[in-house]
Amino acid sequence: MSLCTSQRPKMPDSSSSSPPPCSPIWLLPRKKLHFFARIRRFLRLKAARKRCGSSGEFNLASAKGVNNEVVVQALEMESEDESAVLQRSVKKLHFGSWLEKEMAAKEIERLAREDGKIRKFLAQLGVIPVLVAMAASEVAAQRRVAVTALIELANGSYTNKALMLEAGILSELPQNIDTVDELTRREFAELLLSLSSLANDTQFRLASSKTLPFLLSILQSGSNVETKELCLGTTYNISTVLDHAGALVSSGLLQTLLTLSTSKELSEKALATLGHLVVTLMGKKAMENSPMVPESLIEMLTWEDKPKCQELSAYILMILGHQSLTQREKMAKSGIVQVLLEVSLLGSPLAQKRALKLLQWFKDERQANMRPHSGPQTGRIAMGSPEHPREAQEGKKMMKNLVKQSLHKNMEVITRRANIAAVHSSKLKALVISTSSKSLPY
């Protein structure tokens, strides 16, 4: 016996409180299926809109009044078209003409940029060796599209980077940068920076005979700052491996880094690389023999607007001066003590700590020069000896004069900065008073 009668129900009276007649039971599963089908279509439509939302070809605004089934079918066709584009691009890259290869490389770059999973899939289809070969093309347009495609394929993928190195991308770097334009230089430098993240992998030697000449030629050329920063980032990554220090120093890179460190725009990255090289025996000797050391490093200690450069230069000076009386004497003659006093007062916490450590060395050496040496003495008496009170008094006066001169110099620096700050403060106060007084009623 059914719950509902098969007869047509009567319309309920408005005054009646009885519930409305129920639908037949066999309609309930059909309604559920219809409801879940609509939900499924909505979710598919939303996912597809997210994929192609940037193109705006199938948005809801343009789909008003169009059947949902038609929109879903169109989106599915678009997804099939993307798969067809991928297949067609890979086929043309392998077997097409040079013009077709160029267009295929552009499509591969776009697909790799939009989806990380496609990058792995493209590498499995063997596009990397073909793109590496295109990177050596003499045609600038073909070379550029190949390098930009490789940059996108290398983004966040260790496997793809390893495949590029195995395919010989380092051998395809232009050795004469004068033959390539600035944009191509930058793209090669960006690709090389991405590949340099594998510097710690002993399987790949990035400090090769092909890589270093390319980096040096850009760093020594008139390339723009952005391109040089990319190359400095590569040298930094390579210098993190101590086994590469010999190749880097023998190539003449150290002197180039010292020259670039004098530029405030490039100084921080150049000093960071020098900090890796100076801890090696070969790097330390090369820096000690450089005519720019220690004067250029002492000059960087005065860069108050570059605290990181102050910290790095103080670190390098500490490594050079450690157990080297000759280097400390050169630093003293270059006026490092006065600069260290300023850094110890006004530098960053780390720079202050390193400056105080250097100052302690110079203080200890000054005291050691006044102490008697072991063995028979010939005319040098310890300061303060009761046998020669006059010499003791002269030594004390000399030390007092040195302290007074140092304090006087520091007070001049502090006073000069305070005066500058006061001038700026008074100008600002006068400006505020002049502008605010206009609004007063009297």
TrEMBL record:
It comes from the Eukaryota. Residues 1-21, 369-394 are annotated as: Disordered. This is U-box domain-containing protein 7. It comes from Carya illinoinensis.
